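Researcher: Next sequence.
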Amino acid sequence: MIHYIGKQTILDTDIRTDSTTMEMVEYLRQLDSVELDLETTGLNPRDNEILCIQLGNAERQYVIELSGEEICPLVRSLLHRNESIVFLGHNLKFDAKFLLKHGIELHTVYDTFLAERVIHTGDHFGKPMSLKGVLERRLNIHMSKEVRESFIGHSGSLSVAQIKYAAFDVKYLTKISELQLVDAKQHDLLTVIRLENKVMLSFADMEMDGLGVDIEAWRALAIEAEDVRDSLLLRMDDMVLTRPELERFKPDSFQVSMFGTEAEDKRDSVGIKWSSQKDVLPVIQSLTTPQLESLDTKVLRRDFGGSHNLVDAFIDFVDVNKKATSFGQSWIEKYVENGRVHTGIDQIMATGRVASKAPNMQQIPSDARYRDCFKPTDGFTFITTDYGSQELVVIATGAKDPVWLEALESGKDLHSICAALVFGEKWDEATEDGCEFAASNQKCGCSEHKQLRTRTKAISFGLAYGAGSKSLAQTLEISEHDSEELMNLYFKTFPSIKGWLDGNARSAIRRRFSVTFAPIKRKRFYGDPNQPREDLDFKSRGMIDRRGRNTVIQGTAADMTKLAQIYLRDEIQDHRDEVRLVAAVHDELLVEAKTGTEERWAQVVSECMEKAAEKILGNSLCKATPEIGAHWAK
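Model: Next structure:
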């Protein structure tokens, strides 16, 4: 039954209007779980308002209309940090952010959206995860979305249709959760669901707080990138016009303008769109080889770098053009609100890693000047803390490789040790006077050691992303034949690493899923687990093989970082006036703390991160190192 609480008179037999807020709260406080949803005037909690709050279950659905008024104290006390009631919702992060705007923090939650994502992580991701999709799949109940758009920009009293629509959202979530928990128990995913529900509240805090941006500094970088890009465009056009080998790409004629010079008019007539693969590929093929299939700049730099000025200019153009477009002046206009950027977090990707969108904070250019554009709130200081070699520690722990474990335990330089063992006599002969590695097993400055170390480091890190010989060849700018030989030598030196990765791949093919380290044990599924192994075609087996090697590493690292966020939120929740988590990127947490407290909070952040690492790895090898300053440290 729908219970409406508001100021208007409703004449509809499906809606009761005699309930009071007090009666509602007394009824709901008796329950172990309460379904929660909000209807709002828009999607942005910083600009839009709550129209109504829905609370209830299958028996009673309460719709509390706000009509521009503040949330009443009774409802506030029911919701704010209530530890005795589990609040169920679908895509609860949305609702949590709107409640944060009103100073209400949820404490114990269950998100049917996140649970469904956990249960279907992997190749089952094609299933619709909206409430409408889940209702149809789980309960065979059709949900009409016709009324939904009427809330956007709405003002004044709610219509009867809107009230009924709002109530529908808090009627079936308990039943959905019960069915989800059956699946979760069957697949041993209860711990993952608990983790995702808890860390969701941390992401909600982070998205609401946002991250400060020095707009003028960012704009200066954008203008610089535009100038460099435009200069490169002119150079490439000029080369087309002046180089005999590019004769066939010259325009047959050109349009004379009233104000431009003849040289400028000719340049303007060059019809090559340098950001288009279709336009550019024939040009580069004519300078390199007709067999060239793509314009991947890593391949171009490796195979043809220095062979022609236009090739080199195009490689530079691709990089700077991305800075000028994806991270140019439009970036400020799209994403910066009142001097802060508020990214959106999609917290469960296929491996368990998160994705950042609008804007993507994981793809900020590697140029440190871009990170320097992010600034703490006035009176605050940044604490940048990341895990040291997080993925390598996961590999060492999983493979139980004695060399890797000993190097990590004793603080030796792992990459140099790997290089010394892989290259043997070649490494020894490259030792220069005063070599720090020879003296203390630390990274040294020997010129050839640096090259050899880079090669083994590329393999070690490549393992974490399922990189093969082709990818390694691009990274190191060597041939695929040399890359394959290097990998064979590497795995011959570290057979336990190869054995562990091969075992993960075989297990993924056999069981049709990968699983991360205990106690989390997140799963990524690969198609139908009942399909016989022999029925997999070559392409499918290869795909599962690659993902099986990568997922355990990436997923375990993701579990670790998310658990660290949960521990950190518990520590800072009562101190949000002096410390906030403002960004989480892969293995790194960015916190801003009130100046004067940063040393204390840096220690807290490190302790939370190392506590999470030890919980998952069962050892203390993964250290978290904080860096304090006025900029987001790289």
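Model: Residues 374-401+494-634 form a domain with the Alpha-Beta Plaits fold (CATH 3.30.70.370). The chain is about 50% helix and 15% strand.
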